[in-house]
Amino acid sequence: MSLFLLTGIATLDIVNTVDHYPAEDEELRANAQRLVPGGNALNSARALAAIGHRVELLAQLADDPSALMIRDTLQAEAVRHQHCPCIHGVTPTSYVTLNAANGSRTIVHYRDLPELSAAHFKAVAVEQFDWLHFEGRNPGETLKMLRHARRLLRDQPISIEIEKSRPGLDALLPMADVLIFSRAYVVSMGYTNAPELLAAMRPRAPRATLVCAWGTSGAWALPVGGHDAMHAPAGPAQAVDTLGAGDAFNAGLIAALATGATLSEALHQASNLASRKVGGYGFAHLAGQGNR
């Protein structure tokens, strides 16, 4: 199996499950509460490990009890994390309201921990990995990481997730072999659908495969040199927990591409993995199913 390095953020997710999303000023009792590791890169790493790949996470960790829980989970799920720097501080926390009626999740995020630095990234022998994946956050430091990686890599692909619009993000786009855009990013840029966004991004990243997932509508991809976006429908699913569905999609996509799938095959496999993820809590239920 391929060896992946995922660089991004690790958080504590406090997930409250409710019968319905509360109205403003409503007092509502939660049916259940879970404290679980979160963050895009961390979630994708857990999904990759669950479907049988070797994976390492590189993220800034605090020195508090929440970070210890995160480390314990990563250890139990065979996600390598030995290069994660540990500094004094509080783990970034996402407060998640999970609507049991439809599986939707609403997130309020708080962080007071510095982002991962390029210096920490440079301490890792990146040339040992078959695929490098980055969250498109903290663009200044991420650009330094990408330039460093490009100097050392032979032909290993680099993928970048573009989830939110951030100053300096455009400089990252030409550095990627695969760019994965979120629906939230599409909307923030003033577009109404994935194919429009992918076509608009093509001049900014002419040598990258462009991908965008759109929840229950499926996902679209624009190959290098192509002008028409291909589409894969979302797989059938009873929505239980949509938290991390996009991260599972990202994991399924890069896993498929790394193991020789065509772009069309990878898009379908990623959509199916995301659909299977929303059918259960967390990622453990993906174990043993492979990326199909």
From TrEMBL:
This is Carbohydrate kinase. The lineage of its organism: Bacteria, Pseudomonadati, Pseudomonadota, Gammaproteobacteria, Chromatiales. Pfam families: PfkB. It comes from Acidihalobacter aeolianus. The keyword tRNA-binding does not apply. InterPro entries: Carboh/pur_kinase_PfkB_CS (IPR002173), Ketohexokinase-related (IPR052562), PfkB_dom (IPR011611), Ribokinase-like (IPR029056). The keyword Kinase applies. Residues 7-282 form the Carbohydrate kinase PfkB domain. It comes from the Bacteria. Keywords: Kinase, Transferase. One of its GO terms (molecular function) is kinase activity. SUPFAM superfamilies: Ribokinase-like.
